[in-house]
Amino acid sequence: MKLSLKNPFVLMLLCLMTGMFTAISFLETPLKFQVPGITLPAALGLGKLMFGLSSKIQWGFLIVILILMSVSWKNYTKTDFIILAVIFLLLALEQFWMLPVLDSRVDLLSSGKTLTPTPLHDYFIYSETAKALMFITAIILQFKRNTV
């Protein structure tokens, strides 16, 4: 059994995107709250900025990946496109529903308002975790078996 790549550029972009995403979502986010002297409003403002920028970059990566996969579509299975569709769906839910609501909560908290807890932050964490699993799955699926 020999392995080959479906499209090396798609693999490269998936790896770059996954690395960037992981660094922001699972390293930078929790670590900023550990910085001595950082205030909660500053940490929340940084998170708002980073997640906003991260989602825009992810959209760019995903669009280029979709174009590259479409160009070499014969190398891909329905599963490959379903994984990409799930990532698009999760990113859209975050971009157009979760982040705007969470951003407005950050603004309210930063202005000194007291807010009741919401499960939306947990949903965002679940979405980020699901995206991470989808990215890893998409990377693994970039390899195909040759039966030669």
Please tell me about this protein's structure:
By secondary structure, the protein is mainly alpha-helical. Helices cover 75% and strands 5% of the residues. The protein has four helices and two strands; from the N terminus they run E-H-H-H-H-E. It has helices at 8-32, 40-71, 78-110, 120-140; strands spanning 2-5, 143-146. A two-stranded antiparallel ribbon has the order 1-2. Helix 1 runs antiparallel to helix 2, helix 1 (8-32) packs antiparallel against helix 4 (120-140) and helix 2 packs antiparallel against helix 3 (78-110). The mean pLDDT is 94.
Layout of strands and helices, then pairs:
Blueprint lengths: L1 E4 L2 H25 L7 H32 L6 H33 L9 H21 L2 E4 L2
Antiparallel strand pairs: 1-2
Helix pairs in contact: 1-2, 1-4, 2-3, 3-4
> Helicity range of the residues?
over 70%
Which spans have pLDDT < 50 for at least 5 consecutive residues? Answer: none
Number of strands: 2
Gyration radius, in Å: 18 Å
The ordered H/E elements are EHHHHE
| Number of helical elements | 4
Strand order of the largest sheet: 1-2
Largest sheet report: 2 strands, antiparallel
Distance between the termini: 7 Å
Principal-axis shape: elongated
Proportion of strand residues: 5-15%
Question: If you average the pLDDT, what whole number results?
Answer: 94
Specify the structural class: mainly alpha
Give the key terms.
148 residues; two-stranded antiparallel sheet; 4 helices; 75% helix; elongated
Concise overview:
The chain is built from four helices and two strands; from the N terminus they run βααααβ. With 148 residues, the chain is mostly helical.
